[in-house]
Design brief:
One of its GO terms (biological process) is microtubule-based process. GO terms for molecular function: GTP binding; hydrolase activity; structural constituent of cytoskeleton. This is Tubulin-like protein. Belongs to the tubulin family. The protein has helices spanning about 1-5, 15-35, 45-50, 70, 80-85, 115-125, 175-190, 195-200, 205-225, 230-235, and strands spanning about 60-65, 105-110, 140-145, 165-170. With about 240 residues, the protein is α+β, with helices and mostly antiparallel strands. It has two domains: about 1-175, 60s Ribosomal Protein L30, Chain: A (2-Layer Sandwich); about 180-235, Helix Hairpins, CATH 1.10.287.600. The radius of gyration is 20 Å and the shape is globular. The relative contact order is 0.17.
Length: about 240
């Protein structure tokens, strides 16, 4: 929603607005199954490259450029520009701040007028940024896909027709902010047993709520542990 308000000047986005952006993301993720490219990515590779542990399997999705037709005339939107935008919180589909977490893996899926040389330069620039941190217990791999088919937009829609776009799937410890926010909202409602009777009436047991809450608390802890540097971990053992 913030992406629409800030980048597309849409004060109150509708489901149609949201679905068109989600459609672009799904299209980018599956583009390599449908079109030719220099570095096509198979869907099974996402799991291989993004998931270090079975429970740490929630990707953060980012898309760029999210830009209106009016603004597109004034923007260059180079490979470096859209790559930098994908590491900014404003372009994320989940509200969290990656600058407060660490990346474990990154998949960059480019579409349109993109060449490997520009991608390598953009990645080199990202690695040199101090605001972007990576875990030290595994090599920082950037999985790259380049598809020649440029993004297609809905005629008369919110998004501008652009020569190139990037969809980034990353595994970052920052996404635990979303779980913490969800847990807090659940705790407030469950303390008053809000809506619980509806679920119990449909056959659920009240204990299932507590089990699910404990599972999310464990998930938060899992993300916290993978974000700890291995050197810190070793020193705490002595």
């Amino acid at each position: 929603l913030n992406s629409f308000s800030r980048n597309l000047d849409i004060g109150r986005p509708s489901y149609r607005n949201l679905n068109r952006l989600i459609g672009q993301i799904v299209s980018s993720i599956t583009a390599s199954l449908r079109f030719e490219g220099a570095l096509n990515v198979d869907l099974t590779e996402f799991q291989t490259n993004l998931v270090p542990y079975p429970r740490i399997h929630f990707p953060l999705v980012t898309y760029a450029p999210v830009i209106s037709v009016e603004k597109a005339y004034h923007e260059q939107l180079s490979v470096a520009d859209i790559t930098n935008q994908c590491f900014e919180p404003a372009n994320q589909m989940v509200k969290c701040d990656p600058r407060h977490g660490k990346y474990m893996a990154v998949c960059l899926l480019y579409r349109g007028d993109v060449v490997p040389k520009d991608v390598n330069a953009a990645i080199g620039n990202i690695k040199n940024k101090r605001s972007i941190q990576f875990v030290d217990w595994c090599p920082t791999g950037f999985k790259v896909g380049i598809n020649y088919q440029p993004p297609t937009v809905v005629p008369g829609g919110d998004l501008a027709k652009v020569p190139r776009a990037l969809c980034m799937l990353s595994n970052t410890t920052a996404i635990s902010e979303a779980w913490a926010r969800l847990d807090h909202k659940f705790d407030l409602m469950y303390a008053k047993r809000a809506f619980v009777h509806w679920y119990v009436g449909e056959g659920m047991e009240e204990g299932e709520f507590s089990e699910a809450r404990e599972d999310l608390a464990a998930l938060e802890k899992d993300y916290e542990e993978v974000g700890i540097d291995s050197l810190d971990d070793e020193s705490s053992e002595y």
